[in-house]
Amino acid sequence: MFRTEISTTPHQHLITHQDSILTMGSCFADVMGNRLAENKFSVDINPFGTVYNPVSIFKLLSQAASNTSFTNEGIVESQGIYQHFDLHSKFGKGTKEELQAEVQQLEQKTTKTLADAKWLIVTLGTAVVYERSGEIVANCHKVSASQFSKRILSVKEVIRAYENVRNQLFQVNSGIQMIVTVSPVRHVKDTLVVNSQSKSILRVAVAEMTAFPEVSYFPSYEVMMDDLRDYRFYEKDMIHPNETAHDYIWEKFSGAYFDEPTRQLILKWQKLKRNLEHKPFHPASAHHQAFLKKTMEEMEQLSSQLNLEQEIQALKKEIL
């Protein structure tokens, strides 16, 4: 043995293609959300953009659950663009009114998504937070650092932030299941020492959160740190896990949250997906046209279990 493998056991509740899923949190929530979407799950991926600290994540969930509007005090103008301290930088408009309109639409959409979701996947990135006028912000939007104070959350603060939103979640969706993971992305900007402290706080907090019956923990952080445990599984920046690592973590996630029929369905779709990605030298040839027709038959058979309408319509255009 030259490594220590982390084994995952099937969760009490399992994800199916009939379930609606919402992911929120750090950029690893995007990674997991995109993997789910690629495999034909119904998923809304980080509707508020990437948010790294748990207080801001749970605040956004609270606002979505209660359909509470964002405060205008959080709006800031920087370099001619209006943004909100609770949201990712991608939400920016030329006027305050345009931003308010966009935020209102975002709130309404996410409130409905949360109400319909069977699963909420939350990825916590860091316990390091920035405060402005006593309020923790999700994003500083390149505003002068002099306007913020920086500190590290305590375990109690993280747990309290979830407790504050928990009742609201159940009021809007009594059957929701929550998967929490600590992001394996390293926050080296705050130094590796602080990153280690930050991840430890998040990990202890999540361990206590799993006392709530709706919360389960998926060990993506441990898989990266203690199972893969090698720089060849990182991107060139030595901060983000690479595609090989994502594949491996996804495999572990599948073992924990998908049953065997769901995994087999994913394998069938992946085979068809590779067929669709095939680029022939001679698209009009009899051989390729036969290949397309066979692929179409297989897709139509699978369409009773997965939503393949878009792919079927695109494939029809290629068949002569």
UniProtKB/TrEMBL annotation:
Keywords: Coiled coil, Hydrolase. Residues 89-116 form a coiled coil. Its EC number is 3.1.-.-. It comes from the Bacteria. Residues 21-253 form the GSCFA domain. GO terms for molecular function: hydrolase activity. It is an enzyme of class 3 (hydrolase). This is GSCFA domain-containing protein. It comes from Imperialibacter roseus.
